[in-house]
């Protein structure tokens, strides 16, 4: 058993309370590689922002759970080395799919876990979430749960359509489970294709898709039922069109990739939404930089040559999110 406290990590409790009160959101960036971890920490330190580094089941499989844990421990030391005296870094399991996975993460140093029972019937979701909460709280680890279904792929859970969270269910769910935060469905979804062309209108000037608005009425109704309770938004990448254009220009093929407009996320961050999940934008920034680099330097084959601009592009993107969208800068 390794306590996250020994690794210098923190849970989300105080961080979320401060964010809800202050009208900003904490960035939750997924990481799979050392370059992503470095870029996340550099961005958080430079902007003096708390940050959630999150690991999916896929990331654990790709990078190895033990390596990821040591990377998170390294991340805390790296933040200190970069001049941050008291970094506020959470190591979070993203979309935990079972009690066993959550327990294994808690036992190996995670400070926060998500149990994603969103595909289960309401009562079973409560039962599973409560079981995880009971174990996690014994170790002062915070738990994110989910109610409502996001369209797209949630690790092994996939849904053709989204089902918005039902505001009339949230009080019973939060009370019976004791969860610390709640991920809700209000129209976001995972990946780089968040809406079909049929769901969007098209900007006549640029030819780009313009997505429909998020269901802010549902968010408002949830906030009314659970005043001040920390709310989480998954699937919140904006799919920057300059990245998509660069990828397509240099041999990629991402037709009609579309995300959540930043002004909508800005609005959400000012509400009880205090954690905003971003993964796809990091993948797009990295891929755009690497494709461009290969096109410009066809003779390069040392990974450090193309991973350096890739890391720089991700760092810039993370800083932009923190400062211009979530407002979590200068909050340490
Ligand atoms: O929720 C989905 C995240 O973007 C993680 O994706 O399962 O491919 O690592 P992944
Ligand atoms: P995006 O695919 O929009 O980046 O969402 C990531 C996410 O929700 C991770 O849990
Ligand atoms: Zn997610």
Describe what is shown at a glance.
The protein has helices at 13-22, 34-47, 57-63, 65-81, 99-107, 122-138, 167-177, 216-225, 241-249, 262-269, 280-296, 303-326, and strands at residues 26-30, 51-55, 89-96, 112-115, 142-147, 152-154, 157-159, 181-184, 201-202, 209-210, 231-233, 273-278.
Could you characterize what this model shows?
- The chain is α/β, with parallel strands linked by helices and 332 residues long.
- It has a single domain (13-326), classed as Alpha-Beta Barrel (TIM Barrel).
- The chain is 46% helix and 15% strand.
- It contains twelve helices and twelve strands.
- It has an eight-stranded parallel β-barrel with strand order 1-2-3-4-5-8-11-12, surrounded by ten helices.
- Strand 4 (112-115), helix 6 (122-138) and strand 5 form a beta-alpha-beta unit.
- The chain is globular, with a radius of gyration of 19 Å.
- Bound molecules: glyceraldehyde-3-phosphate, 1,3-dihydroxyacetonephosphate (13P) and zinc ion (ZN).
- Glyceraldehyde-3-phosphate binds at residues 30, 56, 58-59, 94-95, 154-155, 190, 279.
What's the arrangement of secondary structure elements?
Elements: H1 13-22, E1 26-30, H2 34-47, E2 51-55, H3 57-63, H4 65-81, E3 89-96, H5 99-107, E4 112-115, H6 122-138, E5 142-147, E6 152-154, E7 157-159, H7 167-177, E8 181-184, E9 201-202, E10 209-210, H8 216-225, E11 231-233, H9 241-249, H10 262-269, E12 273-278, H11 280-296, H12 303-326
Parallel strand pairs: 1-2, 1-12, 2-3, 3-4, 4-5, 5-8, 8-11, 11-12
Antiparallel strand pairs: 6-7, 9-10
The structure holds glyceraldehyde-3-phosphate, 1,3-dihydroxyacetonephosphate and zinc ion (ZN).
């Amino acid at each position: 058993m390794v306590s996250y406290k020994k690794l210098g990590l923190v849970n989300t409790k105080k961080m979320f309370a401060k964010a809800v009160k202050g009208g900003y959101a904490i960035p939750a960036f997924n990481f799979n590689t050392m370059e992503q971890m470095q870029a996340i920490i550099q961005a958080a330190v430079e902007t003096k922002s708390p940050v959630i580094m999150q690991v999916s089941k896929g990331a654990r499989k790709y990078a190895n759970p033990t390596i990821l844990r040591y990377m998170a421990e390294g991340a805390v030391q790296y933040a200190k080395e970069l001049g941050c005296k008291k970094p506020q870094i959470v190591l979070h399991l993203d979309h935990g799919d079972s009690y066993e996975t959550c327990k294994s993460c808690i036992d190996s140093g995670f400070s926060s876990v998500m149990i994603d029972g969103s595909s289960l019937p309401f009562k079973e979701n409560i039962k599973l979430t409560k079981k995880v909460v009971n174990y996690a709280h014994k170790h002062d680890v915070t738990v994110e749960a989910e109610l409502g279904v996001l369209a797209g792929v949630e690790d092994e859970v996939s849904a053709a359509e989204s089902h918005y969270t039902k505001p009339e269910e949230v009080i019973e769910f939060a009370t019976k489970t004791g969860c610390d935060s709640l991920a809700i469905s209000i129209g976001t979804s995972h990946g780089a294709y968040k809406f079909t062309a049929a769901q969007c209108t098209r900007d006549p000037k640029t030819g780009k898709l313009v997505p429909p608005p998020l269901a802010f009425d549902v968010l408002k109704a949830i906030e009314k039922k659970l005043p001040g309770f920390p709310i989480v938004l998954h699937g919140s990448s904006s799919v920057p069109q300059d990245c998509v254009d660069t990828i397509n220009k240099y041999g990629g093929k991402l037709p009609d990739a579309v995300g959540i407009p930043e002004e909508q996320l800005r609005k959400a961050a000012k509400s009880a939404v205090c954690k905003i999940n971003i993964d796809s934008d990091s993948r797009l920034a990295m891929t755009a930089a690497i494709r461009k680099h290969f096109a410009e330097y066809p003779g390069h084959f040392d990974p450090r040559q193309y991973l350096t601009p890739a890391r720089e592009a991700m760092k810039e993107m993370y800083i932009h999110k923190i400062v211009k969208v979530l407002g979590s800068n200068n909050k340490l």
